[in-house]
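Handout, section B. The chain below has 553 residues.
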Amino acid sequence: MSETLVIGHRNPDTDAICSAIAYAEFKRRTGMRDVVAARCGETNERIDFVLRQFGVPAPRFVSDVAPRVRDVMQSNVISVPPRTSMVDALTMMDQRNIRVLPVLDADRRCLGLLSIFKATKYFVPSTNRVFDSRRILSSVRMISRTLGAKMICAFEPDEEQDLVLMLAAMKATSFSTRLSNYAPEKLVVVVGDREDIQRIAIQGRVRVVIVTGGLDISTEIHDLARRNEVTLMISPHDSATTAMLCRASIPVSRLLREEFLRFHDDERLADIQQVAAISQFQTFPIEDADGRVVGILSKSDFLKPVNRKLILVDHNELTHAVQGADQLEILEVIDHHRLGAFSTAQPILFRNEPVGSTCTIVADLFLRHGIDPTPSIAGIMLAGLVTDTLNLTSPTSTQRDAEILAWLEKQSGVNAQDFTEKVFSSGSLLVSQPPEKAITADCKEYVEAGHRFSVAQIEELGFDAFWKRSDAVCAALARHRERQALYFAALFITDVVQQTSLLMVAGPSQLVDTIAYPEVVPGVFQMDGVVSRKKQLLPYLTSQLRQVSRNDA
């Protein structure tokens, strides 16, 4: 299935979620098919409030977009149950031009694989196993079905046995002599209209007598077979064809290759490609989480293109992108952040503007193309804009943000000031989430001066919630730094009413000691007037990192 995912960064904030929803709608309205809004992180109470307010469902959750087995497997599984005759299975394989056939039970679990190679060994045994060419591993009913025979009388027709085929193309005396060399209860005698041979076989109480050529059987032979409990049937084929088809009546369960390589539909193609490439098998059953076969993968399927593409919104660095983004084609980037390390195999649409919100850029596209968004989509864009710019009070805000916000108020019928108060009072991450989740809800990683670090931001109405939990938050930040092997981890708590912030840093003293803002308690700094992670905090932290690097040098 072909699809294009419009997706924000990991640990998405309101702007990332809202811009994904709105830009997916814009692309649909301008003619792009199969475009889907997506997210690669959990929502929070504030985002959920916005979505409920405008009656819009959350974007599809996608944790990893790397090509999966399910993306290239053949989902139309051609298979047979274990009681299928070999002739039926071979007919299917010939008609479908396939060389390997999975055998599935009633619950669609794979019992094994049937291959042309193993079938060939059965029908053309080696010279030192010539006797195998006369073995029939089947039941009377399976033989009859395979031949399309008319059953005259049958005894224990469903018992599967190891039988021996005997073609009665000889004199009656020779046949009698030969008959005495075998256990009669294991013999399947194929004979034409030689009634003397038929009588000798039945009197000898063989297991089955098959009369070929569609020839009639006399009443005497019929009665004799019943009295001696000998299965009797009429084959429409000649003797040679009948003998061959008797052998082909073997159920596929007898010829299975029970050792085979299987994969799960959710496995990454990159993780299994090498294993599959060096495997002796050409075909692999694909199972779901419950062990049911949902597809078939051949080695040639690895060459198929994956029809999933990405449009990135509210970020342009692969370190912030959904996992696996580097393995897919990226069609567009819509963003308002600094440029990160990013390259593509071919030109793409890259729209990066110095405005306060990605939703400003998306709304501007609606406006420029003369497309009126629905009130709910306009409200979604308004929510992304006011939360990212703190209702135009952030230093990242521009005149274009103000113009677009005024337009969105008219399109949505929502007053921005009233809505801002509601959205920021809708829930405190520090109250609603445990510290480990609160500090990563809107967390981004960066690399600067050879060091990898993270900066998370939480926007609150005052600092009361933080101070009540500061010890637990501090401990969680330190654990996050250790788990992710970061040079330092920072948490930026912003009071959206007072337009001020606190900065908590878990990191080496060489860095912490360079921070010039007032230290309220160890590791927590008061940053009056600093509210933007992108435009104020990040440039400051990177300058301090460069200072540390110079000192170390």
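Note. Residues 533-552 form the longest helix (20 residues). Compare this with the example in section A.
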